[in-house]
Design a protein that fits this description.
Layout: E1 8-14, H1 16-19, H2 27-37, E2 41-48, H3 52-65, E3 70-74, H4 85-92, E4 95-96, H5 98-109, E5 122-125, E6 128-133, H6 137-147, H7 151-158
Parallel strand pairs: 1-2, 1-3, 3-6
Antiparallel strand pairs: 4-5, 5-6
Helix pairs in contact: 2-6, 3-4, 5-6
Length: 175
């Protein structure tokens, strides 16, 4: 039984080709399945091209609505000239949350040296956590699984839940 309240999630796929209908979006549906398997709520889904302003506007809209706790963005985090997801994310966040991105890169390096090329960022706007994930379906899911165990607690802290500090008990042997 899940103790934490359900996380309301927005999933954004950033891909020029998928947004034009030239390629099926495979990463977004995998992320949707992960959220649903965890008994959380997929509150919003979107597919956008690699367009800085469109990504930025959607992030602001979703975060400022107060209806989404977590935004998972897949795609647009590489070295290609049109990859602008990290820049759009950085332009809207109030606080950086680098530990999540560092953990994802560190775990990915055990799988592929290409993890060094990830420019994914994570941050907070108001009470919403934004996480950039790779565009590759396999890498997006692998990266999400690395940070998934801490996301409920992160959301509790952002929502100022009275139970958010419950996991911070002092070990009686240390006192």
């Amino acid at each position: 039984m899940k103790v934490n309240p359900k996380i309301r999630v927005g999933i954004l796929t950033v891909s020029d080709r998928s947004s034009r209908g030239e390629r099926e979006d495979l990463s977004g549906p995998l992320l949707i399945n992960k959220v649903v398997e965890n008994d959380d709520i997929v509150h919003r889904i979107a597919l956008l091209p690699d367009d800085y302003e469109k990504i930025r506007e959607l992030l602001i809209l979703w975060c400022d609505s107060g209806e989404i706790d977590l935004i998972l963005i897949t795609g647009g985090t590489g070295f290609a000239p049109r990859d602008v997801t990290p820049e759009a994310t950085l332009s809207v966040i109030d606080k950086n949350a680098p530990g999540l991105a560092e953990a994802m890169r560190q775990a990915s390096l055990k799988i592929t040296p290409h993890a060094m090329l990830s420019r994914s960022v994570t941050g907070i706007r108001r009470k919403t956590l934004i996480v950039n994930l790779p565009g590759s379906p396999k890498a997006a899911l692998e990266n999400l699984e690395v940070i998934w165990p801490v996301l409920p607690h992160a959301i509790e802290l952002l929502q100022e839940s009275p139970h958010s500090e419950a996991g911070h008990k002092i070990n009686p042997k240390e006192s």
